[in-house]
Write a structure and sequence with these properties.
By secondary structure, this protein is α/β, with parallel strands linked by helices. The protein has 20 helices and ten strands. The strands form three sheets. The chain has a six-stranded parallel β-sheet with strand order 3-10-7-4-6-5, sandwiched between helices. It has a two-stranded parallel ribbon with strand order 1-2. The longest helix has 25 residues.
Length: 477
């Protein structure tokens, strides 16, 4: 990062309130570059908190054009937010007031169910005015996403059902009514499975205000909250818990180590994470060989820090060069960099599943992704091919860009680019190498802590086989 900013005198960055990575890393650069001017902009962040973090710097507030929004809270606790949202939407739609609706739901599944139930119940009402129900979430194909920006025909109202992507990332003209389910999905580290996972949580008060504000962008609006005022005031957090306090920090630890930070426990974080989380991340990096016994960065760790990937994927990519399958692993880690490449349009789920089975490689999701990319490449990276096979063309283009970026880094690091051809067993061994290494160390730690006899490494192998050789099983034993 510091090298990338070397030729710049001013850097303008924008990030939401809960983002933690940029302030932490930029603080290190600013501390070394007193001549660098840093401008931070956001529509939702706590400006006083950021100003204090960067040394009580001045702040500027630029007022935007907004209209008054009247907020209505539920009288009773809502047990089913999908049912509650559908009822509220129908109540609004059957009133003579004009204006489009925006419903906030936690995720794709809830959005699709809400759209389906709303359409069904509307069809049961005699002489109901027409309503265009439109879903919007990140994995929806671009042509379907664009529909929310199109004007509804005269005499017809739009009802957009969205994730929190509609809080700040996009603005739709004509929204006069907002229905807030009160929930969102957050990325949270799960120590049992050793990775981050999306989980449903109540929104914060800051999120709730941001959602309500979407009704006042083009005129006076109304916001209907599917939670009581008491819940809003007493149960919802003032702001979303920052990512650094709820996700795996291995990536951040690796980057800070590469920036020369020695004592992470004493490091000046804007939102200090739990010390156990930092220590656990350092332990994971030590198992991968990125840190030595003193916590210092190893040559392997310095190589891993060059890649914009999670440490296990960095390790797998570097090892793949030694095993002669780096071209295949390069594709796999690039495919893993996007949330998903398959989509199941409503009403065509079975057809999409049948097509997906054509790419399935038994017992390996990683090789399934590799097979899919190779087929796309064989068809000249065709967008039409993606459409016919229920594959996100936009996501695949992103994969291709990431692959080229990672390839450039590998070449700059002088890592070998080799292909194993059709011998995918080599790829399987490469993918499993990191997991086996982690299992071996964790089983060894468990046995030593419990003072179990350990005659040789073969004892570890036997226990590893008996526990199915997975880290998740090792934790249970």
């Amino acid at each position: 990062m510091e090298t990338a900013l070397f030729f710049y005198a001013v850097h303008n960055t924008k990030f939401p309130y809960q983002t933690w990575t940029h302030p932490t890393h930029l603080f290190q650069v600013v501390a070394r570059r007193h001549d660098l001017k840093l401008i931070v902009t956001s529509a939702t962040m706590d400006s006083s908190k950021f100003a204090q973090f960067f040394g009580n710097v001045p702040t500027f507030t630029i007022p935007g054009r907004t209209f008054p929004v009247e907020t209505f809270y539920s009288k009773n606790v809502c047990e089913d937010y999908v049912d509650g949202a559908v009822k509220q939407a129908l109540q609004i739609h059957l009133q003579p007031e004009e204006g489009d609706m925006l419903i906030f739901m936690p995720g794709q599944e809830d959005i699709e169910v809400t759209c389906e139930v709303l359409t069904e119940r509307l069809g049961e009402i005699d002489s109901a005015p027409p309503l265009s129900v439109l879903p919007i979430y990140s994995q929806l194909p671009a042509d379907l996403q664009a529909k929310i920006f199109q004007r509804a025909p005269p005499g017809q109202r739009k009802c957009i059902v969205a994730t929190n992507i509609a809080e700040t990332s996009l603005t739709v003209d004509g929204i006069m009514f907002v229905i807030d389910s009160g929930y969102c999905k957050l990325k949270v580290y799960n120590p049992r499975i050793g990775m981050d996972a999306l989980q449903i949580y109540p929104v914060s008060q800051a999120n709730a205000r941001q959602r309500a504000g979407r009704a006042g962008r083009t005129g006076p609006g109304k916001a209907f909250c599917l939670y009581t005022q008491r819940q809003y005031e007493q149960e919802l957090l003032a702001a979303t818990v920052p990512e650094i306090q709820r996700t795996n920090l291995a990536n951040t630890v690796l980057l800070l180590k590469s920036l020369g930070v020695e004592d992470l426990l004493a490091f000046h974080f804007m939102d200090p994470p739990p010390q156990d989380t930092i220590l656990n991340s350092m332990y994971q990096l030590w198992i991968l060989g990125a840190l030595d016994g003193t916590g210092a960065l190893t040559p392997l760790g310095r190589q891993m820090a060059e890649f914009p990937l999670d440490p296990p994927q960095c390790h797998m990519l570097i090892v793949s060069g030694e095993m002669g399958c780096s071209k295949e692993v390069l594709i796999i880690v690039s495919m893993l960099s996007v949330p998903t490449v398959f989509y199941r349009p409503q009403g065509r789920e079975e057809e999409a599943d049948t097509v997906k089975e054509k790419f399935q490689v038994p017992e390996s999701d990683h090789l399934t992704l590799l097979h899919l990319y190779n087929q796309w490449k064989a068809n000249n990276y065709s967008t039409q091919w993606c459409t016919e096979h229920f594959v996100h063309a936009k996501a695949m283009r992103k994969v291709r860009e990431v692959r080229q970026q990672l390839k450039d880094i590998m070449q700059s690091q002088r890592l070998p680019l080799a292909s194993c051809g059709t011998d995918w067993d080599i790829v399987r061994r490469c993918i499993c190498s990191e997991a086996v290494r982690e299992v071996r160390q964790q089983l060894k730690d468990i046995m030593q802590s419990q003072r179990l006899p350990l005659a040789s490494d073969w004892d570890i192998v036997r226990r590893c086989i008996c526990s199915e050789g997975l880290v998740r099983v090792a934790f249970k034993t």
